[in-house]
Amino acid sequence: MTDSTYDFGAVRDDLTPLEDDCKLLGSLLDDCLRVEIGETMFKKIERIRALAQCASNLSIKGDAGASDMLSHRLAEELMNLDMDEAVPLTRACGHYLNLSGIAELHHGVRRDRSTREPNANSCDAVFGRLIAEGVDPEELYRAVSEQNVEVVLTAHPTQVNRRTLQYKHTRIAALLQQHDRSDLTAEERRNIVSELQREVAALWQTDELRRQKPTPLDEARGGLHIVEQSLWAAVPQYMRRLSAALKKHTGHDLPLQATPFRFGSWMGGDRDGNPNVTAKVTAHVTALARWMAADLYLREVDTLRFELSMNQCSAAVWKMARRIIAEGHTKRAGVVRAKAAAALHQTATDAASHGGSAASAAAAAAAGGDAAADGASAGGAPPTAAAAASDSFSFSRAGRPRPERPSIDTRGVGVLTGGEGAAFPGGMILGTQPVSAHTAAEVSVPHELPGQDVEGGSEMDFNESRRDSEGGDMGGASPHPMLGGGGGPSGGASAEPTGTGYSSGAAQQQPQQPQQEPEVPGTPGFADPGTPDRLGPLPGPFTPGPTPFGNAAAATARGSNSGAGAGAVTGMDRASSGLGGDPTLTRRSLMAQRLGTSPVQFARAHEHPGFHPYRIVLGHVRDRLAATRRRMEDLLSGREPAAAAEGGAGGSGALWYENEDELAEPLMACYWSLWECGGGVIADGRLLDLIRRVYTFGMCLMKLDLRQESTRHAEALDAVTTYLGYGSYLEWSEDDKIAWLTKELQGRRPLIPADMPMSAEVREVLDTFKVAAHLGRDNLGAYVISMTKGASDVMAVELLQREARMQVGTAAGGRGGGPEDGGSLRVVPLFETLEDLDAAEDVMTRLLTNPWYREHLRTVHGDAQEVMLGYSDSGKDAGRLAANWALYKCQERLVAITKNAGVKLTLFHGRGGTVGRGGGPTHIAIQSQPPGSVEGTFRITEQGEMVQAKFGISGVALSQLETYTTAVLLATMRPPSPPRREEWRTVMEMLSRVSCESYRNIVHHSPLFIRYFKHATPEEELGNLNIGSRPARRRNKDASISTLRAIPWIFAWTQNRLILPSWLGIGAALTAAMSQGHLPTLQAMYREWPFFGSTVDLIEMILAKTDPRIAALYEQVLVADPEERKLGAELRERLQRCQGAVLKVTGHEALLSSNPTLRKLISMRSPFVDPINILQVEVLRRLRKDPNNMRLRDALLISINGIAAGMRNTG
């Protein structure tokens, strides 16, 4: 029910259940307060709350006089409070608001679940509506399967709640859901209420303030916490709901590999104006994300291994299992021989040191040497091996030496080198199980049953078999009781998945001649008539060969090159590449062939008594996941990464996973094997959920975008051209820049000398590109250029990318050094200010007509171009209405020029949480985009408190995923209407011009405005809130509005309830249009043009949240200059005129009269927000007289938290 989370205007809701929840949580908090602060103070809080409630009710009913009288009395009482009383009162009101917010979110989920008719924006309802309107089912199926929506989570500092409080809030929401059950006994209901009481008490006793400013690593952990907390469970639920709706309306299931929804991140990659985000931080954040992915997959695989206990499997899975057993036995034998060699060597040494004969010592040494040689050839570690140098943050295997794993220093575990923060604070990451130095020797299995060998039979001590292996998690399957002790083949290279089974890991490095499949030790004499090897080929899917997962090997090969060119398989084009399709036909074929085969023949072909083939395969998957997790631990702890054993020294015994296709291949093999053997219902359970997660989250959960300001790249190139004697790049014209950049990009020689001296700033820019070249597309998404002014800004990044790839390729022995390497990240220009939006057409036209860039776009990026639009800075620059119109026109022009150039356009919308930064309900926002701007692809940022509000609870996240999917689908297949008459465009141009002039006359041209802004809001004090790692300004010494970031700009005005950036200039524009007789035209535009209608609705919602009485109080107490006070009075008068103009256009009697639900919610919050505002005014007054008073600072920060909780969308 958060304002920007649920679509307002469309829901007339019964709020009785919500009010009951609020009363329950409020009463529990009251009980807690009586104990914590005493009955006397609690009664004072009750009285103040009653005064605020009465004043609010009288104001709503129109009795301004009585309301003002009570408000004045309330202010007098609050401002005379001692801080010892003010702080608990502020905290109490803030907690009431947070608890009511939890109840609102839960009520939204409850409403969606209890409604008999499907939600109008649900997949079922939208698909049915489109089919009824004549959309071909096949067209609908194709559109959904190929859709690509990506939500990019950012660390913009508007989330004031600590993560520990967010967790407690989520716990309370879960308990409310349990409390709703109608089948609870009286005892169960009492227990739930008791649990709620404990959570509320814990909330009160927890410090809500961040005492230290978060680092970029802390922010990244917060984003990963959202995945673990809710998205991990919500995504498979969403995919099931989507697939069921497709099946119902089109007859097809969603392709197994479809990724209609993905997540990205800016946390640890957004370095625009944030010196705390360095190249090293980006590498650490990426390693942290891969660690978390491996850990989450490990938990799922552990559960699957116990679930898939059957002994029937397909020929492909049996072949995989046989190879794993053979390789594991060989490796185990090698380890034993290596241990024997070490023991004999020690014996020889001891004999010599104790006076033994030289002959006997030499014989023992020779025997040890022979054993060591045997061990090395069999995959064991020789006694000595030279460690090879390796890049500390390399995520690519190809062409890299594999150093010996160093000894483990337990003191280094959990600490990042350089003191940049703990990778594993207290040995923990995001609440997962502890990670210690013992991980290298043994990884605990949460779901493991004692005494059961999950990789084979059930008579083995599984933990013992793992301890006996020096490979730690590899453990190799020890010989099964059915297998003899015969020796196996030498050369124990680790098993690696291919299209039809598992091949030698060494084979991945260079082509080899086909080799015969190694026999499982001890099996030649055991002619099992039930194995496929003893039968003739069976028809159809029983025949080993191409399978539904057969193309994964090719995708893996492409993915291992750290990127993809035109033929690469990504989430956006996987469905159209042939890798994904309707699985229904394959399932039916497998079922039919099983039914057409005699049971005896089928059993002989598929049963393997005494073996658990799925456990064997999944056990190997687990080994590789554990190796992946260990590698990330090494990187995060500053240790040399452990080498994957390919017969090399000290290896962990398993290759780590580089991309999702490698992980998906054995899972897909198991999936189709289950269907082949009649276990389709099992395959479509936990295993299918895991496959969906693999393709949605990949091996890094959320690919990281990099962002940097364009001037930083220009300064780096200026240093290069100056050093080389070419002149100053910064002084060149745009034409000269593009000509030089094109020439360099067309060449193949390196540009930047390795020994070139450079400043720290330039070196950091170049280091970022080197890290990007190392990490590649498997870990990174886009490179976003903020403040893009010309085509040269994009070409400059392309040149710097190429240089980094060549340098990294040279350092790695030639790997990846080509100028057209597929690892190149897509470069995304970001147009932010009004002037930039107007110039975007010329910039993109020049890019798309540049021969080098056009060919690069075709060969490397598949004729796809992404452009980002900035809603925050454009609104701060020109006002919300002018910015919205400029964004609309910019999108129209970009759609036209890319269509003419034959380029597929993806628009990336940089929206914030509040209307002033482009925020608003998801469905309305997407549906109001220009026609053709949403063609099945859509990227958008979610920031600050909106991340928690939309995705922090699994049920809410599920609803949001569905809303994004259907909104993008409707915008693609039923695009919004453009302006129906040219007159509407003319009127909109006039509105934009007048509103921009009115806004800029106040914000940018008034000499009093900046002083008034600093005095009447807590803008300067926001820097003490510790809610983000990024500075509030791009250039700290410049105090102008242009350098102030959009987030504190909005946040400060939200605190004093004027919310000026969201409406300033709009009233003047509407009044001017109505004075020229355009009121009927405006009303028609509101009813019939989605863009204009949604804009006005959002403005109306913000106006309903403003409170000029509170804004006047801030001014009265904090602003001393009479001229500034006149400005304040003028602003409040403009607010009143804007409200009147909006009501005339909408035809509503009062603000939000068409949405009584949201109006009621706002009125429910006011009695708690108003006292916090009054207390904040008094705290600011005292703090500005005593700025070093830490108690006052804490009180101010608590008040800021409370107001943010009440206003909901603050940034």
TrEMBL record:
<feature type="active site">
    <location>
        <position position="156"/>
    </location>
</feature>
<keyword id="KW-0456">Lyase</keyword>
<feature type="compositionally biased region" description="Pro residues">
    <location>
        <begin position="538"/>
        <end position="547"/>
    </location>
</feature>
<feature type="compositionally biased region" description="Low complexity">
    <location>
        <begin position="371"/>
        <end position="398"/>
    </location>
</feature>
<dbReference type="InterPro" id="IPR015813">
    <property type="entry name" value="Pyrv/PenolPyrv_kinase-like_dom"/>
</dbReference>
<dbReference type="Pfam" id="PF00311">
    <property type="entry name" value="PEPcase"/>
</dbReference>
<feature type="compositionally biased region" description="Low complexity">
    <location>
        <begin position="508"/>
        <end position="519"/>
    </location>
</feature>
<dbReference type="GO" id="GO:0015977">
    <property type="term" value="P:carbon fixation"/>
</dbReference>
<dbReference type="GO" id="GO:0008964">
    <property type="term" value="F:phosphoenolpyruvate carboxylase activity"/>
</dbReference>
<feature type="compositionally biased region" description="Low complexity">
    <location>
        <begin position="548"/>
        <end position="561"/>
    </location>
</feature>
<dbReference type="GO" id="GO:0006099">
    <property type="term" value="P:tricarboxylic acid cycle"/>
</dbReference>
<dbReference type="InterPro" id="IPR021135">
    <property type="entry name" value="PEP_COase"/>
</dbReference>
<dbReference type="InterPro" id="IPR033129">
    <property type="entry name" value="PEPCASE_His_AS"/>
</dbReference>
<keyword id="KW-0460">Magnesium</keyword>
<dbReference type="GO" id="GO:0005829">
    <property type="term" value="C:cytosol"/>
</dbReference>
<dbReference type="InterPro" id="IPR018129">
    <property type="entry name" value="PEP_COase_Lys_AS"/>
</dbReference>
<feature type="active site">
    <location>
        <position position="876"/>
    </location>
</feature>
<feature type="region of interest" description="Disordered">
    <location>
        <begin position="371"/>
        <end position="414"/>
    </location>
</feature>
<comment type="similarity">
    <text>Belongs to the PEPCase type 1 family.</text>
</comment>
<keyword id="KW-0120">Carbon dioxide fixation</keyword>
<dbReference type="InterPro" id="IPR022805">
    <property type="entry name" value="PEP_COase_bac/pln-type"/>
</dbReference>
<feature type="region of interest" description="Disordered">
    <location>
        <begin position="439"/>
        <end position="585"/>
    </location>
</feature>
<protein>
    <recommendedName>
        <fullName>phosphoenolpyruvate carboxylase</fullName>
        <ecNumber>4.1.1.31</ecNumber>
    </recommendedName>
</protein>
